[in-house]
Amino acid sequence: AAMSRKGVKLLVDSLTRSAKHFNKSEVECLISLFDTLVARASSQFAGAGFDRTVFRDTLHSAFGMTDDVVLDRVFSIFDRRNSGCITVVEWVEGLAVLLRGTLEEKMKYCFAIYDLNGDGYISREEMFQMLKNSLLIQPADEEPDEGVKDLVEIALKKMASTYLFVPFLLQDYDHDGKLSFEDFEKAVRDEKLLLEAFGPCLPDIK
């Protein structure tokens, strides 16, 4: 629904405080973009937000994000109310982390992307799914899944690998076959390239 000028000002002020990483003019631009995206979305949300399809198309065109599994996970993280649509608050606050988040915020965001079942750990199975989707497998490979499984074990055993163009130093510090946030955080603080170790889930520097 159309918002009064006063309502928009209050929304901008509120989001400038909560999103932290954007100034007022940037928040105004993001709200304007939000309105444009809502106009493209299906009418089922009565103007309250836009759906998964519009969200995926936007991240693809704006940031070059193409992995379907990652895009679905990003949508789920933005959609904090689990309503099936992205509201203006979720949009601006989500982009604040995606584009300008601190290392701490981005670690929590990336960890949540990789923790597919939301249990607080990245399991072998979740690592496998994420790596399988992000790696380019050559058609000639007879057993591509075996290579992915090997990478998962390398990640857990903190052995070096340049297969993903980053050194695999992730370590299962408590040796339980899965990574807790504490494991992930320690590894990323030691080597920031590991932030996206299991697949690209942030826009590139461009």
From TrEMBL:
<feature type="domain" description="EF-hand">
    <location>
        <begin position="66"/>
        <end position="101"/>
    </location>
</feature>
<dbReference type="Pfam" id="PF13499">
    <property type="entry name" value="EF-hand_7"/>
</dbReference>
<feature type="domain" description="EF-hand">
    <location>
        <begin position="102"/>
        <end position="137"/>
    </location>
</feature>
<dbReference type="InterPro" id="IPR018247">
    <property type="entry name" value="EF_Hand_1_Ca_BS"/>
</dbReference>
<dbReference type="GO" id="GO:0005509">
    <property type="term" value="F:calcium ion binding"/>
</dbReference>
<keyword id="KW-0479">Metal-binding</keyword>
<keyword id="KW-0106">Calcium</keyword>
<protein>
    <submittedName>
        <fullName>EFCB1 protein</fullName>
    </submittedName>
</protein>
<keyword id="KW-0677">Repeat</keyword>
<dbReference type="InterPro" id="IPR011992">
    <property type="entry name" value="EF-hand-dom_pair"/>
</dbReference>
<dbReference type="InterPro" id="IPR028846">
    <property type="entry name" value="Recoverin"/>
</dbReference>
<feature type="domain" description="EF-hand">
    <location>
        <begin position="168"/>
        <end position="194"/>
    </location>
</feature>
<dbReference type="InterPro" id="IPR002048">
    <property type="entry name" value="EF_hand_dom"/>
</dbReference>
